[in-house]
Amino acid sequence: MLVVWETNCALKDVRIRWYENRPSDGIGILLGTSNILDPLKLDDYHHVYKAIIGPFETISNYEYEIIHKENEQKPATIIASNSFQFFPNSPDNSSSNTYPIKIVAFSDNQFGLTVFNHLVKSAFQRHTPNFILHAGDAVQEYKNLQQWQTDFYDPLTNYHLSQQAPVIYAHGNHDYDKENVYAYTTEIPWYSFTIANTRWIVLDSNIDDIKQDEWLVQELSSPETKNAEFRIVVVHIPPFVEFWEPEAWHDKNEKSWGEFVRTRFVPLFRSYGVDLVISGHQHNYQRGQLDGTVYAIIGGSGGQLDLENVEDWNMYVTTKKTHHYVFMEIWSDKIIWVVYDLKGFVIDKFEMGNGVIFSSIS
């Protein structure tokens, strides 16, 4: 797991250590301590630290501490500490201590701080998520430090979501760093991991590279993916976009964005039995199913809504042109998906298991 934090000055001898914190006996077991961490200096007032902690091998509560030691004569000072839960793949897949795994999902909140703040507050009041999912475009400009602070991290921090819920993040076209520095997010373009019974695959729709295709085939055919109860893909640009600005879509050829996601990835989703594909980019909500795979567009977390229809793929059963967020519950045998609008009303809900939607309200 990647931990990212920022200070307004460079500090010497900064490390991170992590514990398994067993709630039954209250005893923290030290699992590891990093080497001294060097910050990435963005300017005189922004120094970013990154550290990998883990692996986490049991279903439990964990805690990390960021520590700073000024000199050998003084004990280390704890700068910050946060606790979280993690659910690695476990033989006891039916354990009542594991399920449900709760996830709050957002996408495309860039330049929509008021809306995003309202949605995050609403999510905080209703749910205690184990993870946060973001399908990209958290900011309008990746290198704009103020946008990252005010438009993304402040709302998540103010409502105590980001401190205790790890973020699953897919880069969008606005938060794509062409220099591959990625000060505030992971610089790994595509990656995968397991949470309990679910294999998560995160792709980068900015990078049309055959290496990503080859990696995806290898990942989809791996035992970790094949043996998972659910296979979920997160990719920012949807393979099937229907709403966009017409001039940009036709005259500026933005209809070609992410075309490789549809032409090269969708056949793989079908062949290897991907259950759910989550995207953003298009600023509204849509859900449909094709060849056993559910496709959901959740790009309504703050950006200006896309209202004009530019394509018709004849596959979506639900379209809502409104701002929203998603709450997911992953159980041992099903996924429950609920979508809330700005007023807190449910605008879509479905349950699925084994690639079949067996309950739907839209």
UniProtKB/TrEMBL annotation:
> For the Calcineurin-like phosphoesterase domain, which residue ranges apply?
101-285
Fetch the InterPro entries from UniProt.
Calcineurin-like_PHP, Metallo-depent_PP-like, PAPs-like
The reply on keyword Membrane is no
Q: Name one Pfam family in it.
A: Metallophos
Query: What GO molecular functions are on record for this protein?
Result: acid phosphatase activity
Identify the keywords attached in UniProt to this record, alphabetized. Signal
Protein name per UniProt? Metallo-dependent phosphatase-like protein
